[in-house]
């Protein structure tokens, strides 16, 4: 609150003081640490590249906080020009027609052309409407990938697994070598949502929620899901899977310290991990279940997109459009991709990085893109589920209970499905 | 400091007396112009209106609707939000934890504050050093206290975790429900003890020396003297602190909880007010969250009424 007030004050000052100064626009985002620095650099590059507009990025904390601040600001008419909204919040903002100007319309109105085909396949649908029109501008996209402590595998004399079956085979040897074989951050994204996409299983009715919000139900109790989580629980009991709670860093830290052999994290973790890891590491795709037979499909993208908020003057909207256009340039995409580890969102940026030899020196940076470029299954395009941040909270609660032994896998997923469906029904009412 | 202890409960008592008193015939007129008292009251009334009545009214009205987060459309649903909340096992579970949490935090922080104050009151040598050391914790902001707690209880590097391991207790804050609850209660109590300490200490200093001496003549048992003479004289302070501590445990521990669960509540213990925040600001469910805050408001209202109605009668103001 304080932050937003001071920003508003600062804005008011700058607009009053400088009469012929560039049009000021604001960009609220949910990045911190190293990634926030890169966002500031992107803004500086935009401001230096042209004189008509000046963008000010403001970190609002986490993704959830950025969305909550954006909503609160919109309700009181103080919304920023551009708001970063994360994957799970996509349905909330896209269903609120009138809160945003669809990115594609905004670009077209201001004389820019958006070429849908320029974007990597896995990224094109997630923030688009049913017809494929871009509502949000894909920005920082990531894929959950598996990081590999190469020392651990050398010591245990085994090769990193591609499938969960292979994991089960090598895990005891890793344990013998003195490692916790597996840890994962944010199980909701890694081993729930992306279990659907990687194994091509339907996540929700109504075409994963894309077709309609009315009557959408969650398919949490899919038998494949239950079977996999029972395995996970078994591995946890046997000391083959380390679970350190719902916090992201709690699960990343033991990997950085070299205690864990495999850690499932975000492709966007790469930048930070390069600095904090105490041992050499590589990465590969998140494993799939070979027995399901549909596996090794592309994953859902994670990360976030940028949304142009409505209710802003034309001149400012023009600047937002210019900025969106600027972001898709190969130069900026390549810079952002290489500085953060988020995947390149345009094919051109991917090709440019390849030509530069970036992946020869940083092979891990390519893993996320390659995973998104895998053949798409019917159910790997994405999901559009209302109140999904709350549904994730239910998942987090139940997952904790599974590993503390308070509930069984079957009951946990039944609870996720029941409470998830209640929330989805409630969301349908808000939109109605 | 003595002033505050004397007047704060006294004020409350006078409010109650005024509210329950029968209208006095021929009351003395204190202001010539009828507008003047309102003018003096205006700043306070404005603050209460803006920060309490207006938001409360908004909460009550939106608790009957299910609303689109961005405020485009809302559907009237009657008491659905209330029945949803009260009917959910999860909500009742959190309510149960909140009750236990409040009782424990209040009891321990009052008890420890009292113990430390009584002991510090008797110290002659270096008394100000002791007092400063005990009071200084109060200067720590709740989020910072939470952060310190989080570091002390970190699964990988926390000294408390290592200490507990020496006794064979595998402390897993953030993973094990009871361990997390333990850590939260500990940090919340630690944060609140100095506050109680300050008030009780000044309360103790407000007890006249003559009374103490008289008690000493009558009874040489220190513990008995404390319970029969000192404690009753501390009652006004204690009653005031009881209300403050309950409010603290219910509401002000928010920051401690927020920092300690690292915004992923998962299966960790949380209090009702944190649930209001999670559903409203994280989940964007404004109707449901409003209903919960109205429920919470009613709980506090009832609690306060009970305290004033039954407990305050037993408090003797000197």
Structure overview:
The complex is a heterodimer of chains A (432) and B (318). Chain A has helices spanning 2-17, 33-49, 63-75, 90-95, 103-109, 121-124, 150-156, 164-176, 187-198, 205-208, 223-237, 248-256, 270-276, 314-327, 330-340, 347-356, 358-361, 364-372, 388-404, 409-431; strands at 23-29, 53-59, 82-86, 100-101, 137-142, 144-149, 180-184, 241-242, 260-266, 281-285, 302-309. Chain A is of the alpha/beta class and 432 residues long. In chain A, strands 1, 2, 3, 4, 5 and 11 form a six-stranded mixed sheet that branches. In chain A, strands 8-7-9-6-10 form a five-stranded mixed sheet. In chain A, β1 (23-29), α2 (33-49) and β2 (53-59) form a beta-alpha-beta unit. Chain A is globular. Residues 15-19 of chain A have low confidence and may be disordered. In chain B, β1 (65-67) and β2 form a beta hairpin. The longest helix of chain B has 34 residues, at 89-122. Chain B is globular. The model of chain B is unreliable at 1-6 (pLDDT under 50). Chains A and B meet through α3, α4, α12, α19 and α20 of A and α12 of B.
Give the helices and strands, then pairings:
The complex is a heterodimer of chains A (432) and B (318).
Chain A: H1 2-17, E1 23-29, H2 33-49, E2 53-59, H3 63-75, E3 82-86, H4 90-95, E4 100-101, H5 103-109, H6 121-124, E5 137-142, E6 144-149, H7 150-156, H8 164-176, E7 180-184, H9 187-198, H10 205-208, H11 223-237, E8 241-242, H12 248-256, E9 260-266, H13 270-276, E10 281-285, E11 302-309, H14 314-327, H15 330-340, H16 347-356, H17 358-361, H18 364-372, H19 388-404, H20 409-431
Parallel strand pairs in A: 1-2, 1-3, 7-8, 7-9
Antiparallel strand pairs in A: 3-11, 4-11, 5-11, 6-9, 6-10
Helix pairs in contact in A: 2-15, 5-14, 7-8, 15-16, 19-20
Chain B: H1 2-20, H2 35-62, E1 65-67, E2 74-76, H3 80-87, H4 89-122, H5 127-135, H6 142-152, H7 159-166, H8 177-205, H9 209-218, H10 222-252, H11 254-260, H12 272-282, H13 286-311
Antiparallel strand pairs in B: 1-2
Helix pairs in contact in B: 1-10, 2-13, 3-13, 4-8, 4-10, 6-8, 6-11, 8-10, 9-10, 12-13
